[in-house]
Automatic annotation (TrEMBL):
Keyword hit for Coiled coil: no
Presence of the UniProt keyword ATP-binding in the record: no
EC number, UniProt record: 1.4.3.19
Primary gene name: thiO
Biochemical pathway: Cofactor biosynthesis; thiamine diphosphate biosynthesis
GO biological process terms, semicolon-separated: thiamine biosynthetic process; thiamine diphosphate biosynthetic process
A GO MF term: flavin adenine dinucleotide binding
Highest taxon, organism lineage: Bacteria
Pfam families assigned to the protein according to its UniProt record, in alphabetical order: DAO
Transmembrane segments: none
GO cellular component, one term: cytoplasm
Top-rank EC class of the record's enzyme: oxidoreductase
The protein, known as: glycine oxidase
Gene3D superfamilies in UniProt: D-Amino Acid Oxidase, subunit A, domain 2, FAD/NAD(P)-binding domain
């Protein structure tokens, strides 16, 4: 069987790699650092096609909903193969208004989601606090999205690393791909510091760095840029967590893990690849979290992390074939990388193995950008 090189060992590269290795493919994943330690590590792990849907994203919504449907089977298979729990939680999500102004905005959003047929409910402040008693007395209303779940994304990427290698995949960490080698309109492999690694198929899954890799003709470089997200992690007592659901407010979202971690995310900033956390970013997140859940004030702060969302020009992923034979893309997932990881692994691995792209993914190939300048 022909050789496959995957550029990028994040949740996309590892997921695609696992699906291919399970089918007996000869597949190698290259990561410039430690696999799974870039955006996949900093994410909140929200699986929230309903709560995160935004006006203008109508075309993307069916993909997000299908992505969400693939999670239960993905969790079952991955937990069984890796022998670990992924802390997949189906408690649901609240989007909480802290004043009348927020309530008006969220009511508009709620009507939009209902209009799109989404299963959301409107709760009073009293009903919100019945579900989450530690929330601020200022909570006046909320959207309840009972089908929006979450998972511990760090456990997912660690598990994927393990099962990918168990299934026979080769993982090359600290191995930057310097160039995608293309000759006569088809890929020949990837250039490493030690020379060319020959491959018949190259999957570009390098997240926010997908556009930076040399060798791609200008019109094939995916229009993907880094959108910085800073997050703060606090530690709750695991036996007495302050929160059970994912909760959003205007300025932040809070994601509780079963081990007591409470992730507060995330800034959305156009700062290129500047990975320095800022006082302003952290202040904004902590203030938002404190206004929503005053008891965070006393929690130990254990980590501040910075990640780069791979954001395409229309915020939707870029999946499948390119005009270069053998070059396949899996990038540009913006805010939806964790949610779309099983679906991406499924459609991209099937495309690599069969040459057929699932109709669901067909609107999301690079072709949609090719007539427009990057
Ligand atoms: N999906 C959450 C974020 O991008 O911050």
């Amino acid at each position: 069987m022909s050789r496959i090189a995957i550029v990028g060992g994040g949740i996309m590269g590892l997921g695609i790699g696992w699906y291919l290795a399970r089918e007996g493919a000869d597949v190698t994943v290259f990561d410039r650092g430690r696999a799974g330690r870039a955006a996949s590590w900093v994410a909140g792990g929200m699986l929230a096609p309903h709560a995160e849907a935004e006006p203008g994203e109508e075309r993307l919504l069916p993909l997000l909903i299908e992505g969400h449907k693939q999670w239960p089977a993905f969790v079952e298979a991955l937990e069984e193969a890796a022998g670990v729990s992924l802390d997949y939680r189906t408690d649901g999500t609240l989007v909480v208004a802290l004043d009348a102004d927020d309530a008006r905005k969220f009511r508009f959003w709620y009507e939009y989601l209902r209009g799109m047929g989404q299963p959301v409910e409107w709760l009073s402040g009293y009903e919100v606090r019945k579900r989450e008693p530690h929330l601020s007395r200022e909570a006046v209303a909320a959207i309840w999205s009972g089908h929006d779940y979450h998972v511990d994304n760090r456990r997912v990427v660690e598990a994927l690393k393990r099962v990918f290698v168990q299934a026979g995949g080769a993982l090359r960490e600290e191995t930057p791909v310097r160039e995608i080698v293309i000759e006569g309109g088809r890929v020949r492999g990837v250039r490493l510091d030690e020379g060319v690694f020959e491959a018949e198929t190259v999957v570009l899954a390098a997240g926010a760095w997908s556009r930076e890799i040399e060798g791609l003709p200008p019109d094939i470089r995916p229009p993907v840029r880094p959108v910085r997200g800073q997050v703060v992690i606090l530690q709750m007592p695991p036996e007495a967590p302050l929160l059970h659901h994912v909760v959003w407010c205007m300025d932040a979202y809070l994601v509780p893990r079963s081990n007591g971690q409470l992730l507060i995310g995330a800034t959305v900033e156009e700062m290129g690849f500047d990975a320095t956390p800022t006082a302003g970013g952290v202040f904004h997140l902590l203030r938002g979290a404190w206004e929503l859940l005053p008891a965070v004030y006393d929690l130990p702060l254990t980590e501040i992390a910075v990640g780069f969302r791979p954001t395409s020009r229309d915020d939707a992923p870029i999946l499948g074939p390119t005009p270069v034979e053998g070059l396949v893309m899996a990038t540009g997932h913006h805010r939806n990388g964790i949610l779309l990881a099983p679906l991406t692994a499924d459609v991209v691995s099937r495309f690599v193995l069969t040459g057929e792209l699932d109709p669901l993914a067909q609107p999301f190939t690079l072709a949609r950008f090719l007539s427009q300048p990057a």
